[in-house]
C-alpha cells in the first residue's frame, strides 16, 4: 500500500482478543494500512504468533497478554504503551463469547461471567485508555453482535451484554464528543473458532438465510472496523453497524 493510501501511517492501534478470528484479521488489516499494532489476547502465545506473522509481512507489531476482565492487566498495558512513548490512536475492543443457556436455566455465575467478558471488559478498557486516546484524538471500535439487534433462542446473557454495548457507544460518543469517537460493529455469522464445532448442515442453513448467500469472514468485519477507526469515518460516532450480509433485515426462514 502506498503511503498516500495508508490510512493508519504513524498511528498506534491496540487490539484485544486479537490472537484469533476477527481480532486477528483486524490486526493484519490495520497493520497492512500502516498502523503499528499492539496485539493482545489472554492467550499470550496466540498474540505473539499474530504479531510475528504481521512482522513477517513487513508490518509493525508487538504483542502482550491482556485478560480484558482484569483492570490490573489494563493498567499494565497502558503503562507499557506510555513507557514506549506511544500515543494511542485506535482501540479495538473485541473480546466476547456466546455462552448459551436459556434464562430459566442460567445460573448466576454463567450470567455474570458472560457480562464480565463481553461488557464489563469494555468499561475497563475505556476507563484505562481514555487519557491516551484523548491526547491522540483517537477512535474506539467495539465488536458487538447481531444478538444486540435481534433475538436468538438460548443466548439471553450474550444478548444483554452486546445490547449494553449499543447504549454504551452512544453514551461514550456524547460524553467524549470531539475528543474520541466510539462506534460498534455487529457481526452476523462469521466463520471463526466460535463456529469450529457447528455442523456443516447448520452452516449451510445459516448461509441460505443470509441475503448475500454466504457466511461472513473475519476479513469482512476487519474492513468495517478499519473504516470506523479511520479518518474516513471522522464525522461518524455513536453508531452500531450491522455487518451481517443482510441476515438481520431478512424475513427468510
Ligand atoms: N464469529 C461470529 O460469528 C461472531 C458473531 C458476532 C459477534 N462476534 C464477536 O466477535 C468477537 C470475536 O469473536 P471471534 O469469532 O473472532 O472469536 P475467536 O474465538 O476466533 O477469538 C476469540 C479470542 O478471544 C480471546 N479471549 C477469550 N477470553 C479473553 C479474555 N478474557 N481477555 C482477552 N482475550 C480473550 C481468545 O483467546 C481468542 O483468541 C467476540 O466479541 C464475539 O462475541 C463473533
From TrEMBL:
- A Pfam family annotated for this chain is adh_short_C2
Record carries keyword Oxidoreductase = yes
Under the heading Gene3D superfamilies, the entry gives: NAD(P)-binding Rossmann-like Domain
The answer, when asked if Oxidoreductase is one of the entry's keywords, is yes
- What are the entry keywords? Oxidoreductase
Q: Which family does it belong to?
A: Belongs to the short-chain dehydrogenases/reductases (SDR) family.
| Protein name (record) | SDR family oxidoreductase
The organism named in the record is Streptomyces cynarae
Amino acid at each position: 500500500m502506498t503511503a498516500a493510501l495508508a490510512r493508519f501511517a504513524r498511528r498506534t492501534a491496540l487490539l484485544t482478543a486479537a490472537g484469533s478470528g476477527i481480532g486477528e484479521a483486524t490486526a493484519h488489516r490495520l497493520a497492512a494500512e500502516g498502523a503499528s499494532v499492539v496485539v493482545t489476547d489472554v492467550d499470550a502465545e496466540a498474540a505473539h504468533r499474530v504479531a510475528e506473522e504481521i512482522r513477517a509481512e513487513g508490518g509493525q507489531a508487538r504483542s502482550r497478554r491482556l485478560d480484558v476482565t482484569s483492570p490490573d492487566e489494563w493498567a499494565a498495558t497502558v503503562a507499557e504503551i506510555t513507557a514506549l512513548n506511544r500515543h494511542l490512536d485506535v482501540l479495538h475492543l473485541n473480546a466476547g463469547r456466546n455462552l448459551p443457556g436459556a434464562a430459566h436455566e442460567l445460573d448466576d455465575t454463567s450470567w455474570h461471567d458472560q457480562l464480565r467478558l463481553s461488557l464489563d471488559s469494555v468499561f475497563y478498557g475505556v476507563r484505562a485508555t481514555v487519557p491516551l486516546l484523548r491526547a491522540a484524538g483517537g477512535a474506539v471500535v467495539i465488536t458487538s453482535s447481531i444478538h444486540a439487534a435481534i433475538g436468538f433462542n438460548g443466548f439471553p446473557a450474550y444478548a444483554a451484554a452486546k445490547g449494553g454495548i449499543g447504549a454504551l457507544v452512544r453514551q461514550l460518543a456524547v460524553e467524549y464528543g470531539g475528543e474520541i469517537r466510539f462506534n460498534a460493529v455487529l457481526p452476523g455469522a462469521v466463520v471463526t473458532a466460535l463456529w469450529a464445532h457447528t455442523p456443516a448442515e447448520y452452516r449451510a442453513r445459516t448461509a441460505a438465510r443470509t441475503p448475500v448467500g454466504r457466511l461472513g469472514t473475519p476479513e469482512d468485519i476487519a474492513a468495517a472496523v478499519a473504516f470506523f477507526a479511520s479518518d474516513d469515518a471522522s464525522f461518524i460516532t455513536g453508531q452500531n453497524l450491522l455487518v451481517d450480509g443482510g441476515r438481520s433485515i431478512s424475513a427468510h426462514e
